[in-house]
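By convention, the C-alpha cell line describes the chain's fold. To illustrate:
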Amino acid sequence: MSDSIIQEVRNVREQHAASMGYDLDRIYADMKARQEKHAAEGWFVISPPSNPQL
C-alpha cells in the first residue's frame, strides 16, 4: 500500500515499539498510561464494545 498516512502510522508504531525494546508488556503499559493521562486531562476515551460484531 502506498498511502502516505498509513505509512506514517506504521513508522510511528515501529518507532514506539523500538523505543520499548519490542516488549509487548512494556508497550501495553505505556499505551495504558498514555490513555489514563489523556482521560485525566479531559480527553474522551472510547471503550471497546463488550461483544464486538465480527
Q: What stands out?
A: The chain has a mean pLDDT of 92. Residues 4-40 form one domain.
